[in-house]
Specification:
heterodimer; A: mainly beta; B: alpha/beta; Rossmann fold; Oxidized Rhodanese, domain 1; eight-stranded mixed beta sheet; 17 helices; 13 strands; elongated
Chain lengths: 66, 386
C-alpha cells in the first residue's frame, strides 16, 4: 500500500502498524508523536493501529528550544 | 470548543487605560469587559528568552495587569539575534531585570513580578499558584515536563511553544479540559538525540511566529473568546511557510500525574552509555594542550556540524560529524595507531560519540571536557564563542 509519510510517498506492506512504521522511519521512538490524517495516535495504541492505503502520516519530533 | 473566561473583570479602567487600549475596546468581542479581564489577569512567563521576549512584550502591550517572569540567566551577546526584549546595553545584566525594564517601558501600568531563580521541584508549585495562566518558553525538556506536571497538579492551563531551526510547535494544554503535554509526547527523546537551539541553531524571527500565537491564545483564554488551541497542535514550517494543524486526544494509557518526579533523570542530560564511556576518559582543555604539545601521536576529531566548524575550531582537528561516527561510516577513517581525542561544542555530543568509538575498539580514546567553548574560555581566549 502507499502512504504519505511527512509529505513523501512511501510504500509499505499491507497491515503495517504505526509502531512498525515508526521503527522504519525514526531512529528512536522516544520523543516522537505520530499523526494519521491530522490526528495524533496515542502512543499506547501504536501497535494496535494498522495503517490503510492512502493515509497521510506525520511523524513529529519533540523539540526543546524556546 | 469554547471555554469560559479564565479571569473575572477588574472593577474599572482608568481614563489613561481607556485611551491606551482603545483599539481593543472598540472590537465588540473584546470590548470593556474583555479589557477589564486582561487588567485583572496574572500571567507567568517561564523564560525571558526567544519565545518569552515577544510574548512578554505583547502581553504587556495588551494590558495584562500582572506579569511574572521566571528567569535565572544573564543576557549574552548571542541572545540578541532573537531575544528582542533585551538590547546591547543589557549584555551581562540579569535577564529578568532587563525584561522587566522593557515591559515597563512598553506599558507602565503592568505590575511586573520577577522570579530570579531556576524553576525546580521545590519552588514551582509555590511560584505557579498565584497565576491564572502560564506560558512555557523554556529551552530544555526537563523544565518542560516540570511545567506540564505542575500545571496539571494545580489544575491550571498553560500555553506551550517550542522552536528549533525553522520549525515551531505550539499548543494549549489544560488537563482538566483536554490533553496535556504527556498525551502528545509521553517521554522525552533520548539525551543527545535532539539538539538544543544552542547546539543546532534557530532562526531568530521564528520566535515571533510562535511567540505571537502563544500571546494570541493567552488573550483568548483570559477573555473567553474564540476557539482555543486546546487539543490542537499547530506545527509551523518557516521554510515551506506552512502551518499544519493536528488534533491531540488524551491518551487513556497516560498515567495520571499525582506528584512531581526527578526531571533531570527522566530526561537524562547525558545517556548512561556516555557517562560510562566518559568516566576516566575525559581530559580538560589544558590537558589537551599538553597532549598536543607532546610527542604522543594523537588524532583530534571535531564531531560537530560543518556550520559550527566554520565558526571556530581547535587547531589540528579533523571534522567528522557525530552522526557519521554513530552510523559507523566514519569509524574506518580513524587511525589505529594514534590516540583518538574527541571534542564538540560543550562536551555532550563528544561523550555520546566516545561511547561508540570506545566500543569499536579505540580503548584509549578520550573526549574534551567543555568542548571548543571550554578551549576558547581557558586556553585560547582570542577565539570566538557561539
Amino acid at each position: 500500500m502507499m502512504l504519505t509519510v511527512n509529505g513523501e510517498a512511501r510504500d509499505a506492506p499491507a497491515g503495517t502498524t504505526v509502531l512498525a512504521l515508526v521503527a522504519l522511519v525514526a531512529a528512536d521512538p522516544r520523543g516522537v508523536a505520530v499523526a494519521v490524517d491530522g490526528e495524533v495516535v496515542p502512543k499506547s495504541t501504536w501497535g494496535a493501529v494498522a495503517l490503510r492505503d492512502g493515509q497521510a502520516v506525520e511523524i513529529l519530533k519533540a523539540v526543546q528550544g524556546g | 470548543m469554547s471555554l469560559p473566561p479564565l479571569v473575572e473583570p477588574a472593577e474599572s479602567l482608568t481614563v489613561d487605560e481607556v485611551r491606551r487600549y482603545s483599539r481593543h475596546l472598540i472590537i465588540p468581542d473584546v470590548a470593556m469587559a474583555g479589557q477589564k479581564r486582561l487588567k485583572n489577569a496574572k500571567v507567568l512567563v517561564v523564560g525571558a528568552g526567544g519565545l518569552g521576549s515577544p510574548a512578554l512584550l505583547y502581553l504587556a502591550a495588551a494590558g495584562v495587569g500582572t506579569l511574572g517572569i521566571v528567569e535565572f540567566d544573564t543576557v549574552d551577546e548571542s541572545n540578541l539575534q532573537r531575544q528582542i526584549i533585551h538590547g546591547q546595553s543589557d549584555i551581562g545584566r540579569s535577564k529578568a531585570q532587563s525584561a522587566r525594564d522593557s515591559v515597563l517601558e512598553v506599558n507602565p501600568y503592568v505590575n511586573v513580578i520577577i522570579h530570579e531563580t531556576r524553576l525546580e521541584n521545590d519552588n514551582v508549585l509555590d511560584i505557579f499558584k498565584d497565576y491564572d495562566l502560564i506560558l512555557d518558553g523554556t529551552d530544555n525538556f526537563a523544565t518542560r515536563y516540570l511545567v506540564n506536571d505542575a500545571a496539571v497538579l494545580l489544575h491550571k492551563p498553560y500555553v506551550w511553544g517550542s522552536i528549533y531551526r525553522f520549525d515551531g510547535q505550539v499548543s494549549v494544554f489544560w488537563d482538566d479540559y483536554g490533553p496535556n503535554y504527556r498525551d502528545l509526547y509521553p517521554v522525552p527523546p533520548p539525551p543527545g538525540m535532539v539538539p538544543s537551539c544552542a547546539e543546532g541553531g534557530v532562526l531568530g524571527v521564528l520566535c515571533a511566529s510562535i511567540g505571537s500565537v502563544m500571546v494570541n491564545e493567552a488573550i483568548k483564554l483570559i477573555t473567553g473568546i474564540g476557539n482555543p488551541l486546546l487539543g490542537r497542535l499547530l506545527v509551523f514550517d518557516a521554510l515551506e511557510m506552512e502551518w499544519n494543524e493536528i488534533k491531540i486526544r488524551k491518551d487513556p494509557a497516560t498515567a495520571p500525574i499525582t506528584e512531581l518526579i526527578d526531571y533531570e533523570s527522566f530526561c537524562g542530560v547525558v545517556s548512561e552509555e556516555a557517562q560510562i564511556a566518559a568516566a576516566g576518559s575525559t581530559i580538560t582543555p589544558q590537558e589537551l594542550q599538553e597532549l598536543l604539545d607532546s610527542d604522543k601521536p594523537t588524532f583530534l576529531v571535531d564531531v560537530r556540524e560543518p556550520a559550527e566548524w566554520e565558526i571556530v575550531r581547535i587547531p589540528g582537528a579533523t571534522l567528522i560529524p557525530k552522526d557519521e561516527i554513530l552510523r559507523g561510516d566514519a569509524l574506518a577513517s580513524l587511525p589505529q595507531d594514534k590516540q583518538i581525542i574527541l571534542y564538540c561544542k560543550t562536551g555532550v555530543r563528544s561523550a555520546e560519540t566516545l561511547a561508540v568509538v570506545k566500543s569499536a575498539g579505540f580503548k584509549d580514546a578520550v573526549h574534551v571536557q567543555g568542548g571548543v567553548i571550554g578551549w576558547a574560555n581557558t586556553v585560547d581566549r582570542s577565539l570566538p564563542t557561539y
